[in-house]
Structures are given as structure tokens and as C-alpha cells.
Design goal:
309 residues; Spore Coat Polysaccharide Biosynthesis Protein SpsA, Chain A; 2 domains; ten-stranded mixed beta sheet; glycosyltransferase activity; glycosyltransferase; Nucleotide-diphossugar_trans; EC 2.4.-.-
């Protein structure tokens, strides 16, 4: 902590009271070598998240966003009120382990030209969770995902290129996209790009940021030495709600970063992915909760296939 923080740690909460309190506890327990400030933005939680943080951690700058502008909107609200030279996005459903923030900041100092730095995420049992870095989507990655081949051959960098299937997460790696759950970037680049685009309500906003940064010559990079536990998706009521938002973000990313010719093909491949999942769930057990959730996603295709248009 300090009057002149090196980094601003930004958390956006939405009905994640207990997770948020645990995340903040680990931030303060595991960060020793970095001058930091913590800013929490609450997106209209109904579980007393804001009040609990204000009471338990008075050193945290805790704000109500005045509504629910989504993850990107909440982050913008927080960054606009921060002072650090570096901006660290940290999900409230994470646990900082083994001085992960100190390690990530040290790594950033050693690789200053990359411009976006991230670590490795772990499951609750501390096994590696690979959902922290991705390759940019292309025809083959979307096709293999739609056909289920990326899941069948999940350790293959050919069939599971999108998730870097053959990378064991024990080495430093330059990637296309980093997850926003543990995402460090300099304020100078943040300001140059205008931060996360708030029109992405939730999901793919960090992908859009990374792709825009890459166009300027920056290269997102991951260090295996900075590790956090990420529970994931705790602010969602159900699977279909999460997936509809995820698909909507993916479509918007395609509409912004691919040619018109590719857009039509790539969106059809996302549609095929949903159709195949719906058919598979029907074959396994029609009428099951899983099948009903995929049916909801399919029924909302007129929404997510337009992105945020």
C-alpha cells in the first residue's frame, strides 16, 4: 500500500460477497514487494457486497457503479479513479497464491515491451485451469470446436490450437489473448487504447483489448511463476445465461476483427457448435437439465448471433 501506488488493482463485483472478501484477504496477505492500491467497483449487488468490503477492508476504495454497466464498464469506472502506473484486473472469484501479484509485476518489469502480462490460473484443487490464455480464433479452431475435436484431442496444438493444447503451462509463453481475471497492463497503453470497450457487457472485452494492442506491436505474455486460483462464473445463475453472454461476446469480436467474408463463416461455425451440443445432449438424455440449458441457448440464437449490434 502507499500514497504513490505502483499498481492499481481493480475488482468488479456482482453478488459475490464471500468470494470477494476471500479474494481481498489473499491480496493483502500475499502482496509484499509491490506498492499498490485496491479499488472495488460494485455493480448493483443485492447481497451486501459493497457494505461488507467497506466494513472489513476500509483501506479498499470501494464504489457503487450506480447500476450494472457490465465487467468492462465497471473496470472503466474503477480505472478512472485509480493512480497506479500499472493496472491489474483481478476477478473477485480468485485467490492470490504464493505472492502471485509481486511475481507478475516483477515479470512485467523484466519484459516491459510486451505490454500485457498474465499468470496461470488454477482450479480449486490447484490443478492447472487452462482457461487463462487463448490463440486468436480462425477457421480451423472454430471448426474443431464445433465438431468436438478440440475437446477429444485437448492436448493437441493442432486440434486444440485455440487453447494451446500442447502447452503444459510450465514455461513462459507469448499468446494472443489473456483472460481478464488476472490481467496486467501499463496505464500508458490502457489510455492509448481507451481501456476495455464498455460495449462488451461481459466476455471478450479482454480479447478485443489484446487484439487491438497486438495491432500496435504489443505481445501478451504469460509467466508460470504467478499463479492464482480462479473459481469462475460464480456471478451467473445458470449455464445458459453464461454461454449466451459468451457467444454474444465471441460474435462481436468476430464482427470487429475479421473481414466480412470470414464473419459469415465464423458465425455459422458458432451456430454449428450450439446445434451439435443440443443434438448431443438430446441423444444422451432428452429433457435433462443439460438439454434444456442448450435448448435455451439455441432459442436465443437471434440475440447472440448479432453480437452487441
Amino acid at each position: 500500500m502507499g500514497n504513490n501506488p505502483e499498481i492499481s488493482i481493480i475488482l468488479v463485483s456482482y453478488n459475490t460477497r464471500e468470494y470477494t472478501l476471500r479474494a481481498l484477504k489473499t491480496v493483502f496477505e500475499e502482496t509484499h514487494d509491490t506498492r499498490f492500491e485496491v479499488i472495488l467497483v460494485d455493480n448493483d449487488s443485492k447481497d451486501g457486497s459493497l457494505e461488507a468490503v467497506q466494513k472489513t477492508y476500509p483501506q479498499v476504495q470501494a464504489y457503487a457503479s450506480g447500476g450494472n454497466p457490465g465487467f468492462a464498464g465497471g473496470v472503466k469506472f474503477g480505472v478512472d479513479r485509480s493512480k497506479g502506473e500499472l493496472v491489474l484486473l483481478l476477478n473477485p472469484d480468485t485467490l492470490v497464491t504464493e505472492r502471485a501479484i509481486d511475481r507478475l509485476v516483477d515479470f512485467a518489469h523484466k519484459h516491459p515491451s510486451n505490454g500485457i502480462w498474465g499468470g496461470v490460473t488454477l482450479n480449486n484443487d490447484h490443478t492447472v485451469n487452462t482457461q487463462h490464455a487463448w490463440a486468436r480464433h480462425d477457421f480451423l479452431s472454430l471448426l474443431f470446436s464445433a465438431m468436438g475435436l478440440s475437446k477429444i484431442f485437448r492436448k493437441s496444438c493442432f486440434f486444440n490450437k485455440n487453447n494451446y493444447g500442447c502447452w503444459d503451462r510450465t514455461t513462459v509463453k507469448e499468446v494472443d489473448i489473456l483472460s481478464g481475471c488476472f490481467f496486467l497492463t501499463p496505464r500508458k497503453l490502457w489510455d492509448q487504447l481507451g481501456g476495455l470497450d464498455p460495449s462488451f457487457f461481459m466476455y471478450a472485452e479482454e480479447a478485443d483489448y489484446c487484439l487491438r494492442a497486438k495491432k500496435l506491436g504489443y505481445q501478451p505474455i504469460v509467466t508460470p511463476d504467478a499463479r492464482i486460483v480462479h473459481h469462475g462464473g460464480v456471478s451467473h445463475d445458470n449455464f445458459s445465461s453464461k454461454l449466451i453472454k459468451l457467444l454474444r461476446g465471441k460474435v462481436e469480436l468476430i464482427l470487429r476483427h475479421d473481414s466480412e467474408f470470414k464473419q459469415a463463416i465464423y458465425i455459422k461455425l458458432l451456430y454449428l457448435y450450439v446445434v451439435n451440443k443440443l443434438m448431443a445432449s438430446a441423444l444422451m438424455k432428452k429433457g435433462s437439465d443439460e438439454h434444456q440449458e442448450w435448448q435455451k441457448v439455441f432459442n436465443e440464437r437471434h440475440v447472440w448471433m448479432k453480437g452487441y449490434r
